[in-house]
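Worked Example 4.2. Consider the chain below.
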Amino acid sequence: MTDGRPCKVCNFTRQKSYGVVVPSLDQLKKKGCESLGVNPTDPVTVVLEGDGTIVEDQAYFLCLPFNTKFMLLRDKETWAPAHKIDGGTAWMARESMLLEADAVDSAVVATPWCNLALQLKQNLNSIILMSEGDLQSLVDASCSELASVLGFQEKKTQELQETLQRVLDRKEEERQSKELLQLYLKAVGKEDGQQGDPSPPSQDGAGDVDMPDGMEVDSASGFITRTLMVLKGKTSPETRLSTEDLQVVVSKGPEAMQQVLGWDAARTSKLLQACEAELSARLQQIQAMQSISSTQQDGSTQKEGAGTATQGAS
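Applying the procedure from the previous section yields the following structure tokens:
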């Protein structure tokens, strides 16, 4: 008597389905790949065809009843429930979902956001697993083309893009707040160090400058390459620049920035106004933190003075 367990395997479109007898989960992956024509060296994920439950544990696999149907998923393939459409089979719906972009525009299919849009169409919850780069590509996509792939109205698609942009802006603001706090703490640390150690700084570190890896300076403009990319290609670039970069942009002035960016006067002026407003807001935050620190120090001094006076009176 064999220890093998009869199982069924299918691909993610459910177009192909085979029966196999295997003793273990690893053998299910191996035989399943052979039956479905999948390269055995490709990583696959085993899920239950009925509800998409991921099966990774051998003990759980052995607890499942005979003839359980499994689905093998390769990279970028996701489980979706089976649906009947006009009496047809579920795989027809899945295949049409993959080919819909061809009916929209062949150029759209080549864009990086197309596969992301198809994932969203299958399951909106997949947006949770997307990186900031993925979200940005959806925001930058043409609203009409994205609406065609998603099957949404353009107004709804525009609202989706605006929501994604707000999410990205909030994450960027969080990073900027952390950066401001780090700058403030660094400045306070330097002041404390100078008060505690009057000796001159070592020349060994005089030339050290903290520069991010891979950030080259454009000789023509004097800007870091990444800064130019943000200024030219990002929505609300003023929220994505460091305080130092904002100061440089504002100090350059409209004429110099117009030459650097290659924009007209109106567009350049609008960018400079946004950068000035953002820089002013950040400086106010720094002043507020310094004010809080000064208030705390004054409070400590007053408490020490009061304690001394109490001791003298006693």
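DSSP finds twelve helices and four strands in the chain. The first helix runs from residue 25 to 36. Compare this with Example 4.1 before moving on.
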